[in-house]
Amino acid sequence: MTQAVPRKLRVVSVGAGYFSRFQHEAWSRIPEVGIVAVCDLVEDKARTVQEPFGIANRYTCWTEMLDREKPDFSTSSPRPLATRRCAYASRRGIHLICQKPLAPTMEEATRIVESAQAAGVRLMVHENFRWQPWYRKIKELQTTGTIGEFTHIHVLTRLGHGWGERAYLDRQPYFRDYPRLLIYETGVHESRLA
Fold first, then answer.
1. Does the predicted model carry a pTM greater than 0.85?
2. How far from each other are the two terminal CA atoms of the chain, in whole angstroms?
3. Among 82, 111, 126, where does a domain finish?
4. Rounded distance, CA 5 to CA 69, Å?
5. Which three-class secondary structure state does DSSP give residue 85?
6. For the residues of 2-14, what is the DSSP string, one character each?
7. Coil, helix or strand for 181?
8. In this structure, is residue 60 part of a structural domain?
9. pLDDT digits 0-9 by tens, 141-150
10. What does the DSSP 8-state code read for residue 78?
Protein backbone atom coordinates (compact mmCIF):
# COMPACT_ATOMS: atom_id res chain seq x y z
CA MET A 1 0.00 0.00 0.00
CA THR A 2 1.40 3.39 -0.95
CA GLN A 3 1.31 6.16 1.58
CA ALA A 4 -0.42 9.40 0.58
CA VAL A 5 1.87 12.38 0.18
CA PRO A 6 0.85 15.03 2.72
CA ARG A 7 -0.50 18.28 1.31
CA LYS A 8 1.85 21.23 1.56
CA LEU A 9 0.75 24.04 3.85
CA ARG A 10 -0.33 27.02 1.76
CA VAL A 11 1.35 30.24 2.87
CA VAL A 12 0.79 33.83 1.81
CA SER A 13 2.87 36.79 2.89
CA VAL A 14 1.89 40.40 3.41
CA GLY A 15 4.72 42.87 2.92
CA ALA A 16 7.73 42.68 0.63
CA GLY A 17 10.14 44.84 2.61
CA TYR A 18 13.77 44.35 3.55
CA PHE A 19 13.32 41.42 5.96
CA SER A 20 10.81 39.56 3.81
CA ARG A 21 13.69 38.18 1.73
CA PHE A 22 15.09 36.36 4.77
CA GLN A 23 11.67 34.91 5.53
CA HIS A 24 10.96 33.81 1.95
CA GLU A 25 14.38 32.23 1.64
CA ALA A 26 13.77 30.24 4.82
CA TRP A 27 10.21 29.23 3.90
CA SER A 28 11.42 28.07 0.49
CA ARG A 29 13.68 25.50 2.20
CA ILE A 30 10.84 23.84 4.11
CA PRO A 31 9.44 21.02 1.97
CA GLU A 32 6.09 20.92 3.78
CA VAL A 33 5.37 24.57 2.94
CA GLY A 34 4.46 26.25 -0.33
CA ILE A 35 4.40 30.05 -0.63
CA VAL A 36 1.47 30.64 -2.97
CA ALA A 37 1.23 34.45 -2.97
CA VAL A 38 2.84 37.67 -1.84
CA CYS A 39 1.19 41.05 -1.30
CA ASP A 40 2.56 44.55 -1.08
CA LEU A 41 0.83 47.88 -1.69
CA VAL A 42 3.61 48.59 -4.20
CA GLU A 43 3.34 45.97 -6.93
CA ASP A 44 6.99 46.30 -7.99
CA LYS A 45 8.09 45.44 -4.45
CA ALA A 46 5.89 42.35 -4.50
CA ARG A 47 7.40 41.38 -7.85
CA THR A 48 10.97 41.63 -6.46
CA VAL A 49 10.06 38.94 -3.93
CA GLN A 50 7.78 36.92 -6.20
CA GLU A 51 10.21 36.29 -9.03
CA PRO A 52 13.33 35.01 -7.23
CA PHE A 53 11.30 32.67 -5.04
CA GLY A 54 8.99 31.39 -7.79
CA ILE A 55 5.83 32.53 -6.01
CA ALA A 56 2.82 31.98 -8.28
CA ASN A 57 0.72 35.05 -7.45
CA ARG A 58 1.18 38.63 -6.29
CA TYR A 59 -1.35 41.13 -4.99
CA THR A 60 -1.58 44.75 -3.90
CA CYS A 61 -4.67 44.10 -1.73
CA TRP A 62 -4.24 41.74 1.22
CA THR A 63 -7.99 41.09 1.66
CA GLU A 64 -8.26 39.99 -1.96
CA MET A 65 -5.24 37.72 -1.50
CA LEU A 66 -6.62 36.07 1.64
CA ASP A 67 -10.05 35.53 0.06
CA ARG A 68 -8.72 34.14 -3.23
CA GLU A 69 -5.83 32.03 -1.97
CA LYS A 70 -7.51 30.60 1.16
CA PRO A 71 -4.15 29.91 2.80
CA ASP A 72 -3.44 27.77 5.85
CA PHE A 73 -1.49 30.65 7.34
CA SER A 74 -0.35 34.16 6.60
CA THR A 75 2.93 35.77 7.51
CA SER A 76 3.02 39.53 7.68
CA SER A 77 5.47 42.33 8.22
CA PRO A 78 3.83 45.77 8.00
CA ARG A 79 2.07 46.87 11.15
CA PRO A 80 -0.21 49.86 10.44
CA LEU A 81 -3.20 47.58 9.74
CA ALA A 82 -2.22 44.72 12.05
CA THR A 83 -5.40 44.72 14.15
CA ARG A 84 -7.71 44.78 11.14
CA ARG A 85 -5.63 42.29 9.15
CA CYS A 86 -5.36 39.80 12.02
CA ALA A 87 -9.09 39.99 12.79
CA TYR A 88 -9.94 39.53 9.11
CA ALA A 89 -7.68 36.47 8.78
CA SER A 90 -8.83 35.02 12.09
CA ARG A 91 -12.49 35.12 11.04
CA ARG A 92 -11.51 33.07 8.00
CA GLY A 93 -9.63 30.45 10.05
CA ILE A 94 -6.22 31.55 8.77
CA HIS A 95 -3.37 31.09 11.25
CA LEU A 96 -1.07 34.10 11.65
CA ILE A 97 2.63 34.77 11.97
CA CYS A 98 3.24 38.45 12.66
CA GLN A 99 6.36 40.55 12.86
CA LYS A 100 7.33 42.25 16.03
CA PRO A 101 6.32 44.67 17.37
CA LEU A 102 2.83 43.26 17.04
CA ALA A 103 1.18 46.61 17.73
CA PRO A 104 2.10 50.11 18.90
CA THR A 105 0.11 49.76 22.14
CA MET A 106 -0.59 47.00 24.63
CA GLU A 107 -4.34 47.53 24.16
CA GLU A 108 -4.12 46.96 20.41
CA ALA A 109 -1.90 43.89 20.89
CA THR A 110 -4.46 42.50 23.35
CA ARG A 111 -7.26 42.96 20.79
CA ILE A 112 -5.23 41.07 18.19
CA VAL A 113 -4.57 38.17 20.58
CA GLU A 114 -8.21 38.04 21.70
CA SER A 115 -9.53 37.96 18.11
CA ALA A 116 -7.23 35.04 17.28
CA GLN A 117 -8.19 33.16 20.44
CA ALA A 118 -11.91 33.71 19.82
CA ALA A 119 -11.54 32.28 16.30
CA GLY A 120 -9.41 29.35 17.47
CA VAL A 121 -6.45 30.21 15.23
CA ARG A 122 -2.79 30.22 16.15
CA LEU A 123 -1.14 33.61 16.44
CA MET A 124 2.64 33.74 16.54
CA VAL A 125 4.82 36.83 16.84
CA HIS A 126 8.40 36.31 15.82
CA GLU A 127 11.76 37.93 15.60
CA ASN A 128 12.78 37.76 11.97
CA PHE A 129 16.46 37.28 12.79
CA ARG A 130 15.67 33.67 13.72
CA TRP A 131 15.89 32.96 9.98
CA GLN A 132 19.41 34.35 9.68
CA PRO A 133 21.90 31.66 8.63
CA TRP A 134 24.04 31.95 11.77
CA TYR A 135 21.05 31.36 14.05
CA ARG A 136 19.92 28.40 11.93
CA LYS A 137 23.45 26.96 12.28
CA ILE A 138 23.31 27.37 16.06
CA LYS A 139 19.97 25.54 16.09
CA GLU A 140 21.46 22.75 13.96
CA LEU A 141 24.41 22.39 16.35
CA GLN A 142 21.99 22.22 19.26
CA THR A 143 19.62 19.64 17.79
CA THR A 144 22.39 17.39 16.46
CA GLY A 145 24.28 17.49 19.76
CA THR A 146 27.47 18.39 17.89
CA ILE A 147 28.88 20.37 20.80
CA GLY A 148 26.92 18.76 23.63
CA GLU A 149 23.99 20.04 25.63
CA PHE A 150 23.62 23.82 25.77
CA THR A 151 23.60 25.26 29.27
CA HIS A 152 23.59 28.85 28.09
CA ILE A 153 24.48 30.85 25.03
CA HIS A 154 25.66 34.40 24.48
CA VAL A 155 25.56 35.83 20.97
CA LEU A 156 26.68 39.33 20.10
CA THR A 157 26.39 40.46 16.49
CA ARG A 158 25.94 43.76 14.76
CA LEU A 159 27.47 43.17 11.32
CA GLY A 160 27.29 46.85 10.33
CA HIS A 161 23.75 47.01 9.02
CA GLY A 162 22.49 48.99 12.02
CA TRP A 163 25.28 51.54 12.14
CA GLY A 164 25.40 55.08 10.91
CA GLU A 165 23.41 58.24 11.37
CA ARG A 166 20.21 56.91 9.75
CA ALA A 167 20.83 53.22 10.56
CA TYR A 168 17.60 51.38 9.77
CA LEU A 169 15.48 54.39 8.87
CA ASP A 170 15.89 54.18 5.09
CA ARG A 171 15.23 50.42 4.92
CA GLN A 172 12.75 50.20 7.81
CA PRO A 173 10.21 53.04 7.45
CA TYR A 174 8.09 51.71 10.31
CA PHE A 175 10.90 52.50 12.75
CA ARG A 176 10.38 56.16 11.87
CA ASP A 177 6.72 56.01 12.88
CA TYR A 178 7.21 54.55 16.35
CA PRO A 179 8.05 57.31 18.84
CA ARG A 180 8.94 54.75 21.52
CA LEU A 181 9.23 51.06 22.15
CA LEU A 182 7.27 49.35 24.90
CA ILE A 183 8.60 46.66 27.17
CA TYR A 184 5.82 44.80 28.92
CA GLU A 185 6.51 42.13 31.50
CA THR A 186 3.59 39.89 32.52
CA GLY A 187 1.34 42.76 33.49
CA VAL A 188 3.79 44.05 36.09
CA HIS A 189 5.00 47.24 34.46
CA GLU A 190 5.58 49.10 31.26
CA SER A 191 8.70 51.14 30.63
CA ARG A 192 9.80 53.43 27.84
CA LEU A 193 12.93 53.30 25.78
CA ALA A 194 13.94 56.32 23.79
1. no
2. 63
3. 126
4. 21
5. helix
6. PPPPPPPEEEEEE
7. strand
8. yes
9. 888 988 888 8
10. -
